[in-house]
Amino acid sequence: MSSVPHFLQPLLKTPFHERSRAFCQQDSFIPWSGYTTVDVFSSVEQEYFAIRNATTLYDLTPMVKYRVAGAGAAAYLNRLVTRDVRKLKPNRVAYCVWCNDAGHLIDDGTIFRLGESEYRLCTGERQLDWLLASAIGFDVEISEVTEQIAALSVQGPTSCAMLKDFGMQGIEALRPFEIAQFEVGGNAIMASRTGFTGDLGYELWMDLDRAEAVWDGLMAAGRSRGIRPIGSQALNVARIEAGFIMPNVDFVSAERTVHGGRDRSPLELGLAWLVDFKKGHFTGRRALLEEELRGPQRRLVGLDIAGNKPPHNALLYAEHAGRREIGSVTSAVWSPTCKSNIALAMINAPHFATGTEVWADIYLNRELVWERRMSHARVVEKPFYAPERRRATPAADY
Amino acid sequence: MAKADTTTPAYDCIVIGGGHNGLVCATYLAKSGRSVQVLEAADQVGGAAVTREFAPGYRVSACAHLLHLMPRAMIRELGLEAQGLALAQDAMATTALSPTGTHLSVGVDPVATSGLSRADAAAYPPYVARLARLARALRPVLENMPPRLGTDAWSDRLALMRLAWKVRRLGRRDMRELLRIIGMNVFDLLEEHFETPLLKGALGFDAVLGTNFGPRSPGTVLTLLYRLAAHEESSHLAQPLGGMGSLSDALAKAASAAGASIRSGAAVARIIVREDRAQGVVLESGESINAAVVVSSCDPKTTFLGLLGSEHLDAGFVRRVSHLRSRGLAAKLHLALDRIPTFTGVAPAALGGRLLIAPSLEYIEHAYNHAKYGEYSQEPIFEITIPTIHDAALAPPGKHVLSAVVQYAPYSLKAGWEEEREHFTALAIGVIERYAPGLRASISRAELLTPLDIEREFRITGGHWHHVELAFDQFFMVRPLPGAAQYQTPLTGLYLCGAGSHPGGGVMGIAGRNAAERVLKRAA
Predict the structure, then answer these.
(1) pLDDT by residue (tens digit) across B112-137?
(2) Which has the minimum average pLDDT: A293-302, A347-356, B229-238, B500-509?
């Protein structure tokens, strides 16, 4: 045992670390939830195009995972999140958000119903304090299992065909947000048709000691399908195209904001479809009802911006002269698939209606000479890219 | 059962708990024409203000044993005297017992206080006068519904302005003194003024009685001013004839006379919630009773975590409720005596008053030290009364009852109360015996109620007689906690009226009255 306290020790290595390192030309690693993970393997463009045209592996192990079990687990989760968890059947997954008392978003995540009264909650950030506070008065056991489970995201149009070649027969029948168990070469794998790319794809969950064998098997099976491991940067391009939000990028957890008014409600983040006011009480319900009555003050929307320079962190204005500030960009990227300059932006009422014309104040670094450009932009519907194949069941071979 | 019976409100209001606050609240609601049902779990109403037998023929005020906080105006308004409330004695004197036998009589009138040093005799009257002035300025804090901050309501702004005006009206010197001392501890305050340990002990005693504080704990000047502010409008220390139970009986009669219906032996199991509103209660018997409004006089933890349930509340609120400090440290000792006890150096006239064992501030602080570590005091502090001197009917002819609050006896005793109850009882009796030789030989029965017993018998989580600690962070506008102050709760139709709400515990009744006012205002 090391006498160095855990917070002074180097970042943890995922069970896929040795395999990732071997592929990581750029040696570009970044911290994620206490682990070191790949930011870029070779080039963002190559990796991105593998997501949209072939198949990719993304090491999901650092995703924080909680086991939620007990007779009161369903009631507990139903009070925790804004969706009606009682409707979630065994072997199904639901995307959820949860709020504090003021109806402000703490985090988003996915709930996997693994059994009659056993669930897994996956989140981007650690949430144990809030989960335990929410457990007061419920017959439920909550434990963090992040370090016990290896997870790999397999995304891209050829992912289903590749997984069949790998040995996961029948996976094409898996519907979106469905879970199935497989055994391949003596390795037990749980597969869910979920992902963060907005494309056809799966997430594979397994014991730590199976991780390398599964990675090797997938890489071998995918050789003719253009398989490629990807880092976080390429995934970020895909998730913006899919209109998915990221904590600390598109919103800051309400438990971490210091300044009042900087936390966001699910209604503001355009997640009203996740809020079920009819299901009974959940944390933040009364505050959200009031907000709904008042009408939201701002909303996260999609922007289509003129030109090809992504408006990173740009302030938005109601007119070209830049007098009335109405919001700011949270995520921006040139979308290679849409061939357009897209962004997610938080815009104040009433400027967030689809079709509204706004102006983005973009700063351009041209060989250390800064230029300022006021670019025209239009509020558009999200997602920017949503291919039919992401939902089609049975999933097709490509 | 007909379908209509399951949802039609049978009453306008249900009041959970027939303690004094519940009864006061019910009476005011009924007086305003509401149909009211009081549900009391025990076989008799009164909550912690009851008189009950603890040995054959011996009766005692089982928890609270003195009446000193309920405003006289409220007693008059409710017509409690007409309903049978009589005082066995009023304006009781306090005798601070000294181990040397040279006791100090701390009178209601400061001039009557004798046995002080020259310096203290000179310092005492202005001290009492100034504290009385400060307490009077704080009286609106105590009396009225606390305002809310950050609202647009004029009533809230007005209440804050009225308080500010009262404090400003004190004049520069008193206002400065109030702001200087209000966050202080009572130990330092008394050190500034006096030199006689016995006097300081007696004055400091009132600041820590029934709290989880020692005299050196911050906020004990606040608790002292709180008590003095309550005394401003009350009868000071009084002993109801027939014990505290007769006050509860009078309150129950007043409630009935106003039209409220009272059921005892009707323990509430849970509050019915429909469409995000409190709409009635289910009894432990399974019977459900519908009402438009439910007012709970139970402590906040019982109300929110027990009767309502986390699933109807936000997680952050539930966490705050579970963090409320509500652990009692006061035990109650009841002795059945074969003869009138003799306290060395105490004149027979003083014996019927209030006797304190707290000979110095250091003594009290030392007693408190043990409690911090989950142990009971080896030298506890006592508030002793012998109610039978002025109310002989409480015991068989010629016999007597001694009733004492004993501090500090922590709720969570490290060694466990089952193992330690006998030891602590003997220890407490031993300490009194030093002041009253021969006491032990005259005891025919002793009963000790630890905070754990108080929790069980009176259904108060933690056995704290203020339900939740009276401290700055659980006081006034944030009592018992943000989100449930001003007698409202996050759940529409559910209100609080118990000691956990402003202004707190002790047999005062203001929380009950203010809660009724809030219910009526909301419904109007």
Answers:
(1) 667 788 999 999 999 999 999 999 99
(2) B229-238
Q: What is the ipTM of this complex?
A: 0.93
Q: Give the span between the Cα atoms of B308 and B318, in whole angstroms.
A: 11
- pLDDT band of residue B139 (cuts 50, 70, 90) is confident
Helices and strands counted in chain B (H then E): 16, 18
Chain A residue with minimum CA distance to B301: A137
Interface of A with B in 63-102 (CB under 8 A): 75, 79-80, 100-101
Continuous segment of H or E residues that includes residue A303: strand A298-305
Q: Select the residue of A79, A100, A284 nearest B311 (Cβ to Cβ).
A: A79
B2 pLDDT more than 80: no
Q: Domains in chain A: how many in total?
A: 2
State which amino acid sits at residue A89.
K
User: What CATH superfamily is the domain B3-49+72-85+242-324+460-523?
Assistant: FAD/NAD(P)-binding domain (3.50.50.60)
Residue A391 inside a domain? The answer is no
φ and ψ of B520, to 5 deg: -70, -35
Give chain A positions within 8 Å (CB) of B316. 100-101, 133, 283
* Token pair for B195: 């030199």
Question: What is the C-alpha to C-alpha distance for residues B24 and B258, in angstroms, rounded to an integer?
Answer: 11
In a domain, A392, yes or no: no
Q: Which of A283, A288, A292 best probes binding to B when mutated, by most B CB atoms within 10 angstroms?
A: A283
Same domain, A7 and A132: yes
Give the chain B residue nearest A133 (alpha carbons): B319
Domain range enclosing A65: 1-295
pTM of the model: 0.94
Residue A394 lies in a domain: no
Q: State the nearest Cα–Cα gap between B310 and chain A, in angstroms.
A: 5
